[in-house]
Design goal:
Keywords: Signal. With 566 residues, the chain is of the alpha+beta class. The protein is built from 20 helices and 22 strands.
Length: 566
């Protein structure tokens, strides 16, 4: 193991800049393992890229502090919804400049959202913007009904105000605009470096054509508090933008380094050569970081991920064994029986998983929705580990045939995932102890192979999760519980009541009414048990104690402009 170069030396070597030291009050040093795929907001769809883009650009609006329901102005000073939630009008902030020195105008905002609709591809997050503004998640190459006239109508400047016109009400629309990928770019600058010029004449040539290495990725230009000075494959150097419209950042320089080895990052952090580093998991970080001199630790933060063991209700050939209920396999529709699914949820030892995998830092949710999101119902019933009830349900399932014949099925987990392996082994142990005729074979599988077989409906039992694209309940409930949702479709889960409740919530703009529908959904899902809900982890962060001002919003990157070094 070699000793890491100090950030000061590395900055000087790679960037040709004056030495930067983490000990300086003016400098923040960040180390992480991932590369930076892109700095173009229109195609960024990963946390690493978005975390840097959020420092250089601004959205129209954002969230207040840690809230996911209280909105506050950013590049828009106020907004209003009319026509039953189908028209949104934004008044824009005056006297704002881009890093290039150009003034921010309504034309830039109009161009930004049209560019996102035009260049929308499967690699970007703009599918959910297109879904709101065009009624489809596809681009003009894949959906021939999309025309320039429709794009123009969807977003346009009227008397200096930005106006969005939706084909139907979308209660999640404002949440989508908070997403970092919807930051505002400069039209004239973008065209000058070879990006789309924003005209009808050229739009067709840019449909779905944007790549991570775009000109705007190499030369970003935002209105945000920091601007990029230099970058190479391992290092990005940012400085505070002197023309920023908001309060000037206390920290004037930020050095973001790519450091692959966890031990190297840990050494730099403990020496004080880095202020913030990527961790190595709770067990390792608690042992090596918590309680050490100069280290601040924040625990009990809410998780925005949701995980479940999925029970496929129409299993395709490949993992059926005999394909019969004879103890040597399972029939394709094995999990169609609600009593069987309820038995599986009652047989999972939730407390054991929290102890073994989450080191006691976990809790059960009532539904597959983060508890910080509006719409989550803490009062809904939740499954509990109850071997006696599980036994009764197994005896009832399939008219008693499951209990007398037994079953054998294979459950795969992503190779290398301790969480998935632990969850499936906890389930296996509990179920096999109920009846010796029950057998679950837990086996690893490469991630690409697991995704491929799951997508084809060949996995009987598999653990999968979801992270939010935007902070609205629909992003989770539609994904998991709707028959056309991402996982609902995989599972062959089709419940007319669930679909009706979700469809109603998608078109209801009154929060109280939406939340009431989600309460009904939570109770319906509890009785139908399409999933085994995996306990959520209470998350944590650690950082150098001389850095203060951290605000941990569940869905937004930490804003460097809020930080202060003592």
């Amino acid at each position: 193991m070699h000793r890491a170069l100090s950030p000061a030396l590395l900055a000087g070597l790679l960037l040709g800049s004056p030495a930067l030291a983490a000990s300086s009050k003016d400098t923040l040093v960040i180390q992480a393992s991932a590369d930076v795929p892109t700095l173009d907001p229109a195609i960024a769809y990963d946390t690493t890229s978005l975390g840097l883009i959020a420092q250089m650009y601004d959205t129209l609006l954002t969230y207040e502090g840690t809230s996911l329901s209280r909105l506050k102005p950013m590049l828009a000073t106020r907004w209003a919804a009319t026509d039953g939630g189908r028209r949104f009008t934004f008044t824009l902030r005056p006297n704002v400049k881009f890093h290039s020195g150009a003034p921010f105008t309504c034309a830039d905002a109009e161009y930004t959202f049209r560019r996102n609709l035009v260049t929308n591809s499967s690699e970007s997050s703009n599918w959910f913007l297109a879904e709101s503004l065009l009624g489809t998640s596809r681009n003009a190459n894949d959906d021939k009904t999309i025309t320039w006239a429709r794009i123009q109508k969807a977003v346009q400047c009227t008397n200096g105000q930005l106006v969005f016109t939706l084909p139907k009400a979308d209660p999640a629309f404002l949440s989508k605009l908070v997403y970092t990928g919807q930051v505002i770019v400069n039209r004239a600058y973008s065209a000058s470096i070879g990006e789309w010029d924003g005209t009808e004449k050229t739009w067709k040539a840019w449909v779905g054509k944007l790549t991570p290495g775009s000109a705007l990725s190499r030369k970003p230009n935002g209105t945000g508090p920091y601007q990029l000075v230099r970058a190479d494959a391992t290092t990005h150097l940012f400085t505070a933008f002197s023309g920023y419209w908001g309060n000037p950042p206390a920290i004037k320089q930020v050095l973001r380094q790519r450091v692959a080895e966890p031990a190297t990052r840990q050494q730099a952090f403990l020496r004080g050569d880095a202020d913030l580093i990527e961790g190595s998991g709770r067990a390792a970080d608690e042992a090596q970081m918590r309680g050490r001199p100069g280290v601040s630790w924040t625990d009990g933060l809410p998780s925005t991920q949701a995980w479940a063991i999925l029970m496929n209700q129409q299993i395709k050939p490949g993992a059926l064994g005999s394909g019969k209920l004879d103890g040597k396999g399972v029939p394709p529709d094995f999990f169609k029986d609600a009593s069987l699914r309820q038995a599986f949820t009652a047989a999972f030892n939730y407390g054991q998983y929290i102890r073994d995998q989450l080191k006691g830092q976990g809790f059960q949710r009532t539904m597959l929705l983060p508890e910080t999101f509006p719409g989550y119902d803490p009062s809904a019933p939740k499954a509990t580990y109850d071997p006696k009830r599980a036994t009764e349900l197994f005896r009832k399932a399939w008219g008693g045939k499951v209990w007398t014949s037994g079953f054998t099925l294979t459950a795969h987990y992503r190779a290398g995932s301790a969480a998935q392996q632990t969850a499936l082994e906890v389930l296996k142990s509990s179920i096999e102890s109920i009846n010796p005729k029950f057998r679950i074979n837990v086996q690893p599988k490469p991630w690409s192979d697991l995704l491929s077989s799951d997508n084809r409906g060949r996995e009987p039992l598999v653990m999968m999760g979801w992270s939010p694209d935007y902070a609205d309940a629909d992003n989770f409930v539609y994904t998991f519980y709707h028959s056309k949702g991402y996982y609902g479709d995989w599972l062959n889960w089709n419940d007319a009541t669930a679909d009706r409740l979700i469809d109603q919530a998608r078109s209801t703009v009154t929060p109280a009414q939406r939340n009431g529908l989600y309460r009904q959904l939570a109770r319906r899902a509890y009785t139908q048990a399409p999933f085994i809900l995996i306990p959520a982890e209470r998350e944590y962060r650690f950082y150098r104690s001389e850095v203060t001002g951290w605000v941990f919003n569940p869905v937004l990157p930490v804003a460097w402009k809020d930080l202060v070094k003592r």
